[in-house]
Structures are given as C-alpha cells and as structure tokens.
C-alpha cells in the first residue's frame, strides 16, 4: 500500500499539493486534473524523487526515500531528465546492473527501439525519449508502476503494445492521463486530484 499522509508540496510561494492524505491500496489508479493541478508532482513525490514540504509518504511501511522502497518502484515521467551524454544502451545496462536484471531485449523489440540504442540521449526524438523512459521504469518489473502521461508521443504500434502490456501487468499501477484508455477504463479507479487539493485531501 502507498500512503500519503498530510502531504504538502510548495515551490517558493506556489503550493502545488495541499495537505493531501490518500491511501493507494487498489491495483489500478488514474489520476486526472487540469494542467498545473499537481499530477506530475504527486508522482515524483510518491517515487521519492522529490521531497515533501510537509507530511510523509510510506510504501508498505517503509519511507519512499529508502533504498528498499525505491527498488519496488518504477517511474516514467518527462520531468525526469536523463543524462544527455549517455546512450540508451548505457542507461539500460546501468539500470539492469543496479537491479540485477538481464538486458531487456524483449522490451526493445516490442518498442522497435534497437536502432536507437547507440544514439545519445541528446539526439533522441520526443517519442524515443518516451520509450527509453518507459523501459527504465519497466525493466526491473517493479511492484508499483508510476506513469506520467505514458502514451504521449508514442507511435500507434508502440502505444497499442504498451496498453496491452499494462492490461497484463501483475503489479500496481498509478497513471496520470487524460486518455480514454485510462479515464474510461473500468479497471482504473479515477482520482480527480484538484478536488482532493481543494478540500485539503482525504483518506480513500
């Protein structure tokens, strides 16, 4: 279970998350809300990549900033800047070594990415940046997947494969998206973040 307890996040004088308490204990969630309502920030906080201004975030009893929690999480977001002087192959090799996983030949094939492995990150298109971001989130098969607008920029074939992949994913998924594949999907519990922020958060 992922628990956010009295979480607030501010950037200088701009408060993005306001005293939010929420328990993510279902298998599938889709977080929606207007641009600027804090959806991406929420995922970054939940992954332990940004610090809360106040409150705490717990993953199955452990702080999300702990090494154990980080191994159980996978996140894909355009807000995460990859080292632009490295290649996707170098990034994947490092990530696989950290998590003791084999190189993801299957993901590379299904996302038609083999031709981009030795291209520097700085030279990748937006669509291919999305693909490497997704592979880094998926390669260690985390128990919790945090996906920020995961289909944006994907070509049609990759998008279809990825949606099928998620349908059969054994772990828990929290996604931010305006796409009907998620917002109208009966298997995803829809959460309107702006309403939670407006009323100071609540416990599900």
From TrEMBL:
<protein>
    <submittedName>
        <fullName>ABC transporter ATP-binding protein</fullName>
    </submittedName>
</protein>
<dbReference type="InterPro" id="IPR051782">
    <property type="entry name" value="ABC_Transporter_VariousFunc"/>
</dbReference>
<keyword id="KW-0813">Transport</keyword>
<keyword id="KW-0547">Nucleotide-binding</keyword>
<dbReference type="InterPro" id="IPR003593">
    <property type="entry name" value="AAA+_ATPase"/>
</dbReference>
<dbReference type="GO" id="GO:0005524">
    <property type="term" value="F:ATP binding"/>
</dbReference>
<dbReference type="GO" id="GO:0016887">
    <property type="term" value="F:ATP hydrolysis activity"/>
</dbReference>
<dbReference type="Pfam" id="PF00005">
    <property type="entry name" value="ABC_tran"/>
</dbReference>
<feature type="domain" description="ABC transporter">
    <location>
        <begin position="2"/>
        <end position="203"/>
    </location>
</feature>
<keyword id="KW-0067">ATP-binding</keyword>
<dbReference type="InterPro" id="IPR027417">
    <property type="entry name" value="P-loop_NTPase"/>
</dbReference>
<dbReference type="InterPro" id="IPR003439">
    <property type="entry name" value="ABC_transporter-like_ATP-bd"/>
</dbReference>
């Amino acid at each position: 279970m992922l628990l956010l307890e009295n979480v607030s996040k501010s950037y200088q004088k701009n408060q993005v998350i306001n005293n939010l308490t929420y328990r993510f204990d279902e298998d599938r969630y889709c977080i929606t809300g207007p641009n600027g309502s804090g959806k991406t920030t929420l995922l970054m906080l939940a992954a332990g990549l940004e610090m809360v201004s106040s409150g705490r975030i717990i993953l199955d009893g452990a702080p999300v900033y702990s090494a154990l929690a980080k191994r159980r999480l996978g996140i894909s977001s355009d807000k995460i800047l990859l080292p632009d002087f490295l290649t996707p192959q170098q990034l994947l090799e490092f990530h696989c070594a950290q998590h003791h996983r084999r190189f993801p030949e299957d993901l590379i094939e299904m996302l038609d990415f083999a031709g981009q492995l030795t291209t520097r990150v700085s030279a990748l298109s937006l669509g291919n940046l999305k693909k490497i971001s997704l592979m880094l989130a998926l390669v260690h098969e985390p128990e919790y997947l945090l996906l920020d607008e995961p289909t944006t920029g994907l070509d049609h074939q990759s998008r279809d494969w990825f949606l099928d992949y998620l349908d059969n994913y054994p772990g828990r998924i929290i996604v931010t998206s305006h796409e009907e594949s998620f917002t109208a999907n009966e298997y995803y519990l829809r959460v309107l973040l702006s309403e939670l922020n407006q009323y100071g958060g609540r416990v599900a």
